[in-house]
Amino acid sequence: MIPPGGSSPMGIVGYVNAGFELKEQVALGRMREPDYIFVPLGSMGTAVGLTLGLRAAGFKTRVVSVRVVDEKFGNKEKFIKLSGKTLTLIRSLDPSFPKVKFTDDEIDITHDFFGGQYGGFTEQGMAAIDHVEKSEGIRLDGTYTGKAMAALIDRVINHGVRDEVILFWNTYNARDFSDKINEVDYHQMPSCFHRYFDEDVQPLDKHHPVIA
């Protein structure tokens, strides 16, 4: 059974490994150890995996999780439970893996950029998308990464961040599937989905129509 959002202990192991990959990049001098990493928080797989991986790697980096789903799906209680299941799986396969523990206070979930409903674009999120696209040529999306970037920008501008290394972990797909999409006739999908191709379904769709 695939749970809502698709996050499972087995899948989360991929982001635990990503934490060790980041440690390798720091060791090679490609960047300094981050003080903060900003990620969107949906079904929590990315944030849980990175937190476990970075702690096991000996980093003090704080993962800032920007909630983009209803709080009943993304909260500290579920975060700790999912991390525990993931750690149990890893240690069942490799008992030498560190017994990572962290307290409730060490889990940083930001709730102010959700926008009221899943998939609902926000003014802050779309402004962040425009800014990053124009300044860096990087594409983000309105549901997840745009909101995470908005939180990062707000933290820097309004909360006195100085001389700290902040990493934005971009979870938006970087591959171009335009050629594949052009071959697909959306009318073959159930009719309830057609409106998403035929019309704007929320006001901010017109603000940035290429972002889903």
Q: Would you write up a description of this structure?
A:
This protein has a single domain (about 10-175), classed as Rossmann fold, CATH 3.40.50. It is about 40% helix and about 10% strand. It is built from 7 helices and 4 strands, in the order αβαβαβααβαα. It has helices spanning about 10-25, 45-55, 75-95, 125-135, 145-160, 180, 195-200, and strands at about 35-40, 60-65, 110, 165-170. The model has no long low-confidence stretch (mean pLDDT about 90). The longest helix is centred in the N-terminal third of the chain and has 19 residues, at about 10-25. Strand 2, helix 3 (about 75-95) and strand 3 form a beta-alpha-beta unit. The two termini are about 25 Å apart.
Number of domains: 1
Separation of the first and last Cα atoms: 26 Å
Low-confidence stretches: none
- Write down the Rg: 18 Å
Q: Could you name the CATH topology?
A: Rossmann fold
Q: How much is the average pLDDT? A: 92
- Do you know the CATH architecture? 3-Layer(aba) Sandwich
Secondary structure tally: strands: 4
Q: From the structure provided, what is the oligomeric state, counting identical versus distinct chains?
A: single chain
Tags for this model:
four-stranded parallel β-sheet, Rossmann fold, globular, alpha/beta, 212 residues
